Structures are given as structure tokens and as C-alpha cells.
Amino acid sequence: MKSYDGTPVSGIGRLTKLFSGRKRVKIISDLRTPINGISALTKLKSISNLLKKPGYAQSCVQRLTTGCLATACLLLVSASPAVQAATLSGDSQTILRLKETADGKKPYPLYEYLNLSGERMWGQGSLNLEAGGWGRLELGDKIADRRTDTALQHGYLGYRGGKGNLFFQAGRQFIAEGVATERLDGLYVRSDLESALTAAAFVGAPVARETDFEGGDTIYGGRVAHSRPRYYTIGVSALRTGQDNNRIREEEGIDLWFHPSEKLDVVGRSSYNSITSGWMEHAYSLKYAFLDTLLINASFSGINYRDYFHQVTTKVFSLTNGVLDPQEKVTSLGGSVSYMNLDDVNISADFKTYSYDIAGSANYYGAKAAFTLPFSILTGFSVHRMDGESSRLRFNEYRIFASKKLGKADLTVDFFDVRYDEPINDVSNTYSLAAAVGYEISSQLRVAADVDYGKSVDLDRQVSALLRLTYYFDKEFSREGRSKSEK
Q1: Strand pairing of 294-304 and 246-261?
Q2: Nearest CA to 301 among 324, 274, 328, 330?
Q3: Beta bridge partner(s), residue 225
Q4: Which residues are 380's β-sheet partners?
Q5: Chain-centre distance of CA 475, in angstroms?
Q6: Which pLDDT band holds residue 2 (cuts at 50, 70, 90)?
Q7: What is the spatial distance between Cα 250 and Cα 254, in angstroms, rounded to a whole number?
């Protein structure tokens, strides 16, 4: 592969050894040609046609993800006179949840979350490795099909060029480009072009766990945007998902950011569903700094259920489960005014109105405040009212919290209370009282514990606890590949 300015980047060709079959090798060989924005989009389009073949996408991109992770680890720590020192950082979180389920079981799951981030200079750019995953072990009663479970959340090898703001990533990753906010196994490229244009493209297979419906076996799309960094960005994007050559999702959208003055920001997006021929969503917000300490916010959004929930992978959001009406439409308007004295006071008032074509309307409004008291105590409270047409949407909401830093330890207490106008399941008052304490053993190691006692309309007086151990690490490797330092 070559960088944006044509500088050779050695090592990527080694990935071809991790694949079998001429077509898989052809994908990698295609990526070794110069990448310069428009040509990259053409390459990814041709790759997408190959991935459309039934059953081919998953096997190819899963091998690609595994191969990228293995190659990235070798490249980050291997010895090479032409390569600069590398860094490897990350964190580990071990979490034990103590909670009784509604049917009286006590699974006590133990979780391990691990995130890794590596970087090494490579030619005129840099080579990056990002990986993260989790594992679960049920120490108590068995509630799932098996006591253990694991998942790779993300894992990709990336290259960032020295010019043109070029990004290239291969593996399991989360894409956020216009209408696409997806996790996929595949390829992603992004680069600045001439005339203040930016182009991005991606192709691969969707990643979804425990699905009730098919989510497609191929996904591809992209975004083109025009920007003036200090004033505006306008982008257009598209997304396609298929299953055995059948149309699953076809979405297009426009997104924008306007900054006409230092005090005004406007952000928004609109998404269109080509299969249902309808607008899925409109969402726009405005922020105006009237004074240095006074901030005004306004927001608008609209969602059409038939278009927005047309393709889902879980039964909860299915339009055929009898819960969501495909004819429903919701429009919301909101705003807030905040006074911020950065030294010790933050006070705000907010409101939001929801208008449903079928379910009716509801208004949510109130105020909140936060104060810094003597002895470094942070405290605050909020009061809100939900006024809707159903009994579940008519209640008063109260919250009060406080936190205190005590050397290497910190303590937080949070009380949340909801009082319904009419009882639901014979319950008119629900609440939650949470307390948390943390202690920093060292700059790399922290331990924390949370306890929560509460009552809801579905569960009566439930107690849960959580224990968390967090470890941070940061290593630097010399050119010879030896560990040079640890922070």
C-alpha cells in the first residue's frame, strides 16, 4: 500500500499470506495500489460487488479481522531499522455484579473488559492498532445457555497518512459517517480531496449479536462532505445492506454543521429510507452563547416509525410485535437556558414537548442546579414534571446528589424519586438510592464499589451491588522491540 503522497508503505502485503483462495488475495492486492480519495472509492465499490456473493462476506471479513490483528501485533513489536519506537496502552476492567433476578436467581456474573491501543510511526505516517473485547463468567445460578461468553467489540489495523488527512482501517470497527453508525467487519478509508472536499467509504459485513432477524451479510456506503473548518460542513451519505442479493437497507442522508459566529452553532441531520420511500428522521439543534455565562439551547426532531424501524434485528423494535404502531409519528421540540458560573454554580431550566399522532402528547419540563460547597463538596438537585396522556407519563421526578473527594478516595450518593399521579401495579412512588466509593491505589490501579437500593412498578425493593477493579498501562518499545518504559 502507498500513502497519500505516494510514499511506499511496506508490510501490508504480508497480509496476503493469511488468506487462502485467489479472490481473497485479490482483495489485498487491490489495496496495495495507490490510495488517493476517488480511486479508493472505486476500489471499495469493486470489492463490495465481490462481497455480495452469498456466504462469502462473513468468511472473508472474519479472516481479514483476525489477520489484521495478528499482523498489527507483529508490526508493532517487530524489530526494523526503518521503523520508529512503538507505544502500547490500554486498560482492563474486572467487574462483579451482585444482583437477584425477578425470578429469584442469583447469577453473579463476572465480566472482564480489555482495551488495547498501539501506535508506531511508519514511513511518513503511522500504523495503529485498536482492539477491545469482553468476557463473562456466571459464578452463581445459570440463567443463560452457557456460563461463559466472549465478544470482540472492535479490533482493527489502521494507517494514518502524513498528508491529506488519510485514514485506512481494516478489521472490526465502528463507523460513523452520516447515516451510517454501524459496527462491521471490513474496510474503511477516509481522505481529504481538493476544493475542500472530504470523502469516506466502507465495505464489509454487519456485526450483530443475539439477533432475532437477519441483519444482512454485506454492507457498504460512504460520505462526501464540503467544509470550511471555521464556518460550516455539509455532507451527503448513503448506506446499503443486502442478504443473498435481497435489499435489506437502503438509506441516504444529509448532515450539516454551521458556525456563522463564535457564539452560534447549528447541527443537524435528515435520513431517508429508499425502500419505504419515506423520511426516517429529522434532528436539528441550535446552541447560542448569549453571554459568557448564559447558554441557550433549542432542538427539533421528527421520526416516522414505518420508515425508521423498517429493518431491525431485535423483536423489541419490530413493527410486527404489536407494541410499535407502523403508522405512528413523533415530533419533539425542546429547549433550555443555562447559567454557568464556573467557580461554584450551574443552574438551568429545560423543557421538551412530544407529539405523537396516535399515542397523544406529553410535556417534560423542570430545572436543575449544581453547586460547589466548601471542603470540595459537589452537590445538586433537579425537579421535573412529565405531563402526558397515559398514567405512565404523568409523574413528578426528583433527584438529589452529592460527591466528595477525600485524598485518594471519592464518595458519591445519589437519590432518584418518581411519584406517579395514579398508581401503576399498586405502586405510586418509585425510588433508587445509590452509593459509590472509589479508591486510587496507584496511578495505574483503582478499585470501586457501588450499592443500589430501589423500588419500581415492576420490582419491589431490590438490592444490587457492583465491584470494579481498573488497571491502566502504557508501554513504549524501542526499535529493537524491547520494553523501554512503563507508566
Answers
A1: unpaired
A2: 330
A3: 198, 235
A4: 370, 401
A5: 26
A6: very low
A7: 14
Rg (CA), the chain: 26
Q: Give strand pairing partners of 95.
A: 111, 468
Q: What single-letter amino acid sits at 369?
A: A
Residue 186 main-chain phi, psi, to 5 deg: 170, -150
Query: Confidence class of residue 480 from pLDDT cuts 50, 70 and 90?
Result: low
Provide the 8-state DSSP code for 8: B
Which among 85, 78, 58, 95 is positioned nearest to 14, based on CA atoms? Answer: 78
**Residue 413 CB partners (closer than 8 Å, separation 6+):** 401, 402, 403, 433, 434, 435
Other CB atoms within 10 A of residue 300 CB: 15
pLDDT tens for residues 25-57? 333 333 333 334 444 444 444 544 554 454 554
Could you report how far apart the first and last alpha carbons of the chain are, in Å?
34
C-alpha cell at 407: 485524598
Measured distance CA(358)–CA(352) in Å, rounded = 18
Measured CA angle at 156 (ends 150, 159), to 5 deg: 165
Within a 10 A sphere around the Cβ of 52, how many other Cβ atoms? 17
Tell me the one-letter amino acid at 459: L
State residue 383's pLDDT score: 98
d(CA 211, CA 203): 21
- Whole-number Å distance between alpha carbons of 359 and 287: 30
The answer to whether 307 touches 325, Cβ cutoff 8 Å, is no
Cell numbers placing 403: 460527591
Task: DSSP for 8-64, please give it.
Answer: B-TTGGGGGGG--SHHHHHHHHHHTS---SHHHHHHHHHHHHHHTSTTHHHHHHHHH
Q: What is the pLDDT of residues 297-337, one digit of tens each?
A: 999 999 999 999 988 877 777 777 778 889 999 999 999 99
Output 254 or 35, whichever has higher pLDDT. Answer: 254
Cell numbers 477516509: residue:
190
**Residues counted in the chain:** 487
In the beta sheet, which residues pair with residue 127? 120, 159
pTM, 2 dp: 0.77
The residue among 221, 141, 227 whose CA lies nearest residue 187 is 221
CA distances from 462 to 99, 237, 299, 401 (A): 8, 46, 36, 20
Residues 6+ apart with CB under 8 A from 385: 363, 364, 365, 366, 395, 396, 397
271: β partners:
253, 281
